[in-house]
Amino acid sequence: MDMNRRLQDIIKYKTGGRQTAFAALLNWSPQYLSKLLKGVDFGLQPVVSIIEALPEINARWFLTGQGEMLSDEKQADLRREALEHVYQVMELERFIPVMTPDELRMFERQVREGEKADFSPDTIQSWRERLNVREREINVKFATAAAKSDELCRQKTAKR
To answer: What are the φ and ψ backbone dihedral angles of 148, each rounded to 5 degrees?
Structure first.
């Protein structure tokens, strides 16, 4: 893979492939970026500009194609952020049975769009309380059913 291709990968990563936005990010004209993508005037200065503006880009990968596009530190940060997001969603997932329809809609949107779930501490406390009430109701029903089952098992059976 040549540097033009690696530059295209960086543009896809940083701006979703929007060349004009990427050029603006680096204070370049779109025409200059277009030249670089065609391999014209691809010297050291544009490489230095990109590495300085985007420190998460692995310079060795950009120059030689060896390694990964993102630095090890950036990859670790992304993994950490992804895990934090997963843990947060898992923590809130247990409250789904007691969420109101509006809260469910908001939670679903946040999960689907990969946003950070943003609920107030009061809302989460309300869910905890509702969940506790729900669990107590289930436990009462279970205890009642178990007592009835025990009673039925203790009754004498009719002889045949």
So the answer is: -65, -40
Q: Is residue 160 part of a domain?
A: no
Instruction: Please indicate, yes or no, if residue 159 is contained in any of the structural domains.
Output: no
Question: Is the whole-model pTM more than 0.70?
Answer: no
pLDDT at 157 over 80: no
User: What number is the average pLDDT over the span 127-154?
Assistant: 92
147 and 81 fall within a common domain: yes
Q: Tokens in use for 46? A: 């544009």
Q: What is the spatial distance between Cα 44 and Cα 63, in angstroms, rounded to a whole number?
A: 9
Smallest CA-to-CA distance from 50 within 25, 16, 17 is with 25
What tens digit of pLDDT does each residue of 34-69 get? 999 998 778 889 999 999 999 999 999 999 999 999
Strand boundaries in the chain, DSSP class E: none
Amino acid at 78: L
Q: What are phi and psi of 55, to 5 degrees?
A: -65, -15
Which pair of tokens denotes residue 134? 């729900």
Q: Within this chain, do residues 91 and 55 fall inside the same structural domain, yes or no?
A: no
pLDDT the model gives residue 20: 96
